[in-house]
Design goal:
With 229 residues, the chain is α/β, with parallel strands linked by helices. It has one domain: Alpha-Beta Barrel (TIM Barrel), CATH 3.20.20. It is built from 10 helices and 8 strands. The protein has an 8-stranded parallel sheet with strand order 7-6-5-4-3-2-1-8. α2 links the parallel β1 and β2. The radius of gyration is 17 Å and the shape is globular. The structure holds pyridoxal-5'-phosphate.
Length: 229
């Protein structure tokens, strides 16, 4: 199946059930992204700031770029002028930095708080308690140029479907609770980003409304530098 075929099939599959499809294009060339774009895809996810900025500069300007990887505070300035959504907010300090740079560009930047749900040491993200603490803090309530649109989570990389289901179920339950407690009057807290190529069907069953798919669209990523494609 070509990239274009994959996009058409997956757009069909997700649009009918109101799940947003993010095409994760990290390490993929501009030609490959263009093929997905020409098939109708407009939202792409990247995890490295420099790669994202370069692709933004070279590709059509109606693409919506999402940052899905860990973001260092000192790199916020490079993406603040154009980023559509930062899905990987994992500290109050980072959120304050995003707010500061968004203000400089007279923008409000949409963000997801990344929740730690996996049974692995390597994944970034906030614990349930830390998210509640952040949302309750005085420092958070004064921020005017960031908008929390929802939560993002990455399940454990395992074949054990029961475990993956439990992690997604917990995140969905937490999402509903946070919406009730902190965003009852705010319809823009509406996004639950969970599910990647290996587990997006389970994620959708558990209530995800945004899936981040890379290899299912573009094929396996080989370890190479994206500029040398
Ligand atoms: C790479 C990545 C994806 C996509 O992974 P695939 O398994 O290729 O679908 C999704 N989410 C995040 C946060 C990623 O880093």
């Amino acid at each position: 199946m070509s990239i274009a075929d994959n996009i058409k099939r997956l757009k069909n599959e997700t649009e009918t059930i109101k799940v947003q499809l993010i095409a994760v294009s990290k390490t993929k060339s501009e030609e490959e992204i263009k093929e997905a774009y020409d098939a109708g895809q407009r939202v792409f996810g990247e995890n490295m700031v420099q790669e994202l900025v370069d692709k933004y500069e070279h590709l059509p300007k109606d693409i919506e770029w999402h940052l899905i990887g860990h973001l260092q505070s000192n790199k916020v300035k490079y993406i603040a002028p154009f980023i559509s959504m930062i899905q990987s907010v994992d500290s109050l300090k980072l959120l304050q930095e995003i707010d500061k740079h968004a203000q400089k560009h007279s923008r409000v930047i949409d963000c997801l708080l990344q929740v730690y749900i996996a049974d692995e040491e390597t994944k970034y993200g906030l614990g349930f308690d830390e998210i509640i603490e952040l949302l309750r803090s005085e420092e958070f309530t004064v921020l005017k140029n960031v908008r929390i649109r929802g939560l993002m989570g990455i399940a454990t990389n395992t074949e054990n479907e029961k475990q993956i289901n439990e992690e997604f179920y917990e995140l969905k339950t937490f999402f509903d609770g946070i919406k009730q407690s902190f965003f009852r009057k705010d319809g823009s807290f509406d996004t639950l980003s969970m599910g990647m190529s290996s587990d997006y069907k389970l994620a959708i069953e558990q209530g995800s409304n945004m899936v981040r798919l890379g290899s299912t669209i573009f094929g396996q990523r080989v370890i190479k530098h994206w500029k040398n494609n």
